[in-house]
Amino acid sequence: MAEKFEKQVVDVGSAVQEILESSRNNLWEAIEEWEYLLEQKSLYKRIVEHKKLREAKDVKIVPFEEKYAKDFKALNEEWISTYFKMESADHQSLDHPKEYILDRGGEIFIALYQDEVVGSCALIKMNDPQYDYELAKMAVSPKAQGKNIGWLLGSTIVNRVKELGGRNLYLESNTLLKPAINLYQKLGFEKVVGRATPYERCNIQMELKIHL
After folding, report:
1. Is residue 139 a contact partner of residue 75, using CB atoms and an 8 Å limit?
2. Of 178, 156, 173, 177, which is closest to residue 207 (Cα–Cα)?
3. What is the edge-to-edge ordering of all strands in the sheet holding 59-63?
4. Which SS3 state, helix, strand or coil, does residue 116 take?
């Protein structure tokens, strides 16, 4: 049987070679190219990325309106309470966003997915010689994660700072929030040290130098 198979392998190889020589494309080279591309990034990761891009098309980032006040508070209370505890500075800005953020030169943006509020982020005007604005109160609903909403909110904040002529953007976070830290790094933020903070949970501070 082994001898018969050995002869058949030769015949099969010759037949395949004939097809390859008659074809415009080399099958083996194409397979090698696919294998290389999949080694760089798996098909699963590619599918997830395209899913995010498709779903991101249904996400709208809109300016804050009073009708979003309860959602703004609820989203932030949810994530803060999940990992930490609410602090005095949280209650001030979430209970009174107009007085503590908007009236002081800041802005708030709301993320809508299929017209449902699923995320928020604030741009706070800073009275600081080093920084113009602070990125704060970014929150995304757990049911809407994986749709690039954090990236869309962060990008909106960065672009808004550019439009306002700001040069330095600041934020505070906690290294426990690894996805958030990764997002900030993708946006271009870098770690800084030595600044005072009103939050007990803050153990990392970052800045983004805006290039106009």
Report:
1. yes
2. 173
3. 59-63, 107-113, 116-125, 133-140, 168-173, 204-209, 190-192
4. strand
- Burial (CB < 10 A; 0-12, 13-18, 19+), residue 96, is middle
201 burial (CB, 10 Å; 0-12 / 13-18 / 19+) is: middle
Q: What is the DSSP letter of 113?
A: E
Per-residue confidence of the chain (212 residues) as pLDDT tens digits?
777 777 788 888 888 888 878 888 888 888 899 899 999 989 888 888 777 777 777 889 999 999 999 999 999 999 999 999 999 999 999 999 999 999 999 999 999 998 899 999 999 999 999 999 999 999 999 988 888 899 999 999 999 999 999 999 999 999 999 999 999 999 999 999 989 999 999 999 999 999 76
Q: How many residues does the chain have?
A: 212
Beta-carbon contacts of residue 55 (< 8 Å; ≥ 6 apart) = 113, 146, 147, 148
Q: Which two structure tokens, joined as six digits, stand for 129?
A: 């010689």
Buried b (16+ CB within 10 A) or exposed e, 152-186: bbbebbbebbeeeebebbbbbbbeebeebbebbee
Output phi, psi for 130, to 5 deg: -100, -35
* Joined tokens for residue 84: 């930490």
pTM over 0.90: no
Nearest-angstrom CA–CA distance, 117 and 140 = 9
